[in-house]
Every structure is written in structure tokens, then in C-alpha cells.
Amino acid sequence: MPPLPPQPISPLDGRYRPAVTALGDHLSEAGLNRARVHVEIDWLLHLTDHSFFGSAPLDPELARRLRAVVQEFGQADIDRIAELEATTRHDVKAVEYYVREKLAALGLNAVAELTHFGCTSEDINNLSYALTIRSAVQDVWLPAFTAVIEELRRQAAEYRDEPMLSHTHGQPATPTTMGKELAVTVHRLERVKAQIEGTEYLGKFSGATGTFAADLVADPETDWQAVSRGFVTSLGLTWNPLTTQIESHDWQAELYNRISHANRILHNLCTDVWTYISIGYFTQIPVAGATGSSTMPHKVNPIRFENAEANLELSSALLDSLASTLVTSRLQRDLTDSSAQRNIGVALGHSVLALDNIKGGLGQISLNRPALAADLDANWEVLGEAIQTVLRAEVTAGRSSIADPYALLKELTRGRRIGQAELVEFVEGLDIGAEAKARLVALTPAAYTGLASELVDHILPTTD
């Protein structure tokens, strides 16, 4: 067979591209090169603004036009850097030559030697990665993550009073409400979100082995640590004073571990919702024109949640690998991180795709209240916990002489299905106070949800 035209290997660049396109603006090779140009130009302007080596601050219009190189960075610029790299065989050197060309076009050859001054490639790269990762997380991943949280919050509030049989170990257990169970997930996700939002994005700018050696030889009188700190913080990053040639990437490991944790909470949500669909607690809303099965026309498959599960697993696998790989570098430098970091966009892309599917899936389910009610009514034995707990309180208060309340209820309910009539008859024959007896006779599985509804308040906005 003849070969196909060039095709994307990753499904993120193929069938799933619409869901992850926004990440390409940050974590693609082009996005990285734009950030490198940004750092190179800002560093040159930082030097001229402080009149290093006899330079002077650029004319404001020239400075504006130089900064516009970053703002207007497009396909022609992407192609030119690729052409330069084909000759240099070095990605950062290609960016340096590209910046020099832009300086020449603006008549700024007099300051061209300040391009990449005192820098090792990693000085440019670590800042560029910090900028692109930060913007990808803040502008793309976090909004998608927040959208899922907000939809869960909305449903938690909507279903806060909807009683549901719990299933601990897959067996009927003390009832809850669907809203409270969704609120648990919201609470978990909010904690991780706060940790991710609090991420420190670190940067170094200290030369070939982190010692400022070249800078100090060029100008022994300058406080190069202060210059480095001022430049890194001017980019909105946290200055790291102690590094080898590379920034140690610990902040990246922390971030990826947190996002991986978020992925796993979401994976738990997907498996739970999938199970609720399978037992009929949620019904799926058919999408017009969609096909559930190629042979069984009746099916509406929970494919959004299944797709999300797979992509969350892939994302976490990559993030875990990045977190463990990036914190190690042989002696003062090796290039393991160079290849690894090019997969950050892939790792976040699988998570963004999963978030898109979860949000869509949550919008295509509806609570099946009759199914929840029927399941509760078929499992009156779950009230055994309530009855034996009341008996213990009655014995302690001196209103009952029952010897072993737990054993009594175990004999009645363990491994057995009992109905309302049997349970009422049993309670009526108990040696307990009249008020407690009346409470138990009136109790139903649907009413035995404790503070479930009130607990939802913990994830809802407070009103003063």
C-alpha cells in the first residue's frame, strides 16, 4: 500500500485537537520559542535600562517595537527560527540569532552583543518554561478544572435533599444524599485547586554552573545576584539563588504531583458516576444523531466518563514520570530534562481532554429519583445501624436492659432482607423508652440521611 500523507501520531493532534488547541499557544515548540524570544528581549532591555557597559535606555518607540516582536510573533517567525536551527543545530542559539536579526532591522546593532549576554541556554530555557507552564495552567487547565468543579457544585446543591442508598464495599449501607456525595468530590477538588493556584514558579539566571562567573569577570563591581533577582522577579517568577546550570525543577515536580492528584480524584468521580449510571441512579440524556453501539440500537454508553478515565490515567502516568525525572540531573547538567519537558503539553493535554469529557458527561445525565426511591425501599435492613445505636443510648440512660444491642440487630438483619412491617414489629417489641420507640417506628431508609443535606453547605458560597 502507498504511504499516507504525513499524519499526527498523537490523538491530541488528531481527533481530539479541538479540545486541547488552547494548550498549543503555550506548550508547543512555537510557544516555547516565543517565550524564549520574550526572555532574550526582556534581558537585553533590562541591561540597557540599567545602562550596563556604556549602553543607554532605548528610545521608547524602539523599545516598543522591540517588544512588539513578541506580541506579533507568528508563522513567519516560527519558520525563520526553524531555518536558523537547521544550521545551528541548537534551539536556543537559533533564537539568539533571530533576535539579533530583529535588532539589526531596527538599527540596534550597537547593543546586539547584549543579546544572550552572560547566559547559558538554560538561563533562557528555565524562565521560558516557567512562563509557558504558568500561562498554560492559569489560562487553560485551571479554567477547565474550575468549570468541572462548578458543575459539580451546582448538581450538589440541586441534589442535596435527594436520598440515596450508600454502597460501602458494594453492599447496601447507611443512606446519604446524591448532593452530599457530589459535595465530597467538590471539597476534595477545591483543596487541590488551592494548592495548584499557590504554585511557586521558580527561575534562575546565574550562568553556566550557577556561579555568575562570566558576569563577575565582565563587571566585578556589579551586584549580579541583585541583577538576577530583579530580572527574574520582573517576569513574575520567584528567584532561585542556588542552582547548578539548571533550575532544579522541584517546583515542576510539586505542580505535576498536584495535578496528578487532581486527575486521580477526577478518575474516582468518573468511576462512581459510571457505576451510578450502571445501576440506574443516573440516566443518560441521548444526544440527537449519536450512536451508542454499532449493533445494539438501544444503548446509550457512558463514553464521556470512560474516555476521561483513560486520559486521566495517561496524564497522571506522564506527570508522575516528569515529576520523578526532572528532579535529577547528573552533576551540574545533563540533557535528560530537555526531552522530558517537551512532553509537558502532552501530559496536560490528556488532562484537559478528560476535563472536557467530564464537563460534557455531567451535562448529559439526569438523576433517576424513582430508582433511588425503589432501592431505598428495598433495603430496610440498613436501619439496623440506627436501631442498635438508639438501643445503646437507651441502655446507657437506664431505659433498657437489653444485654447486647449490636448482636440483637446482627441476628435480625445480617445477610437478610427485611421489610418495613418486620422492622416495625421488631421495634414495637423492644424494651426501650416510648419516645425512642416512636422515633424508630417513624424512621424510613429515605429519612435516614443524617446531616447529609446540611453538609452540602460547606461547598456553597456563604452569604453574610
TrEMBL record:
<dbReference type="InterPro" id="IPR000362">
    <property type="entry name" value="Fumarate_lyase_fam"/>
</dbReference>
<dbReference type="GO" id="GO:0004018">
    <property type="term" value="F:N6-(1,2-dicarboxyethyl)AMP AMP-lyase (fumarate-forming) activity"/>
</dbReference>
<feature type="domain" description="Adenylosuccinate lyase PurB C-terminal">
    <location>
        <begin position="329"/>
        <end position="449"/>
    </location>
</feature>
<dbReference type="InterPro" id="IPR022761">
    <property type="entry name" value="Fumarate_lyase_N"/>
</dbReference>
<comment type="pathway">
    <text>Purine metabolism; IMP biosynthesis via de novo pathway; 5-amino-1-(5-phospho-D-ribosyl)imidazole-4-carboxamide from 5-amino-1-(5-phospho-D-ribosyl)imidazole-4-carboxylate: step 2/2.</text>
</comment>
<keyword id="KW-0658">Purine biosynthesis</keyword>
<comment type="pathway">
    <text>Purine metabolism; AMP biosynthesis via de novo pathway; AMP from IMP: step 2/2.</text>
</comment>
<dbReference type="GO" id="GO:0006188">
    <property type="term" value="P:IMP biosynthetic process"/>
</dbReference>
<dbReference type="InterPro" id="IPR008948">
    <property type="entry name" value="L-Aspartase-like"/>
</dbReference>
<comment type="function">
    <text>Catalyzes two reactions in de novo purine nucleotide biosynthesis. Catalyzes the breakdown of 5-aminoimidazole- (N-succinylocarboxamide) ribotide (SAICAR or 2-[5-amino-1-(5-phospho-beta-D-ribosyl)imidazole-4-carboxamido]succinate) to 5-aminoimidazole-4-carboxamide ribotide (AICAR or 5-amino-1-(5-phospho-beta-D-ribosyl)imidazole-4-carboxamide) and fumarate, and of adenylosuccinate (ADS or N(6)-(1,2-dicarboxyethyl)-AMP) to adenosine monophosphate (AMP) and fumarate.</text>
</comment>
<feature type="domain" description="Fumarate lyase N-terminal">
    <location>
        <begin position="64"/>
        <end position="308"/>
    </location>
</feature>
<protein>
    <submittedName>
        <fullName>Adenylosuccinate lyase</fullName>
        <ecNumber>4.3.2.2</ecNumber>
    </submittedName>
</protein>
<dbReference type="Pfam" id="PF08328">
    <property type="entry name" value="ASL_C"/>
</dbReference>
<dbReference type="InterPro" id="IPR047136">
    <property type="entry name" value="PurB_bact"/>
</dbReference>
<dbReference type="InterPro" id="IPR020557">
    <property type="entry name" value="Fumarate_lyase_CS"/>
</dbReference>
<keyword id="KW-0456">Lyase</keyword>
<dbReference type="Pfam" id="PF00206">
    <property type="entry name" value="Lyase_1"/>
</dbReference>
<dbReference type="InterPro" id="IPR013539">
    <property type="entry name" value="PurB_C"/>
</dbReference>
<dbReference type="InterPro" id="IPR024083">
    <property type="entry name" value="Fumarase/histidase_N"/>
</dbReference>
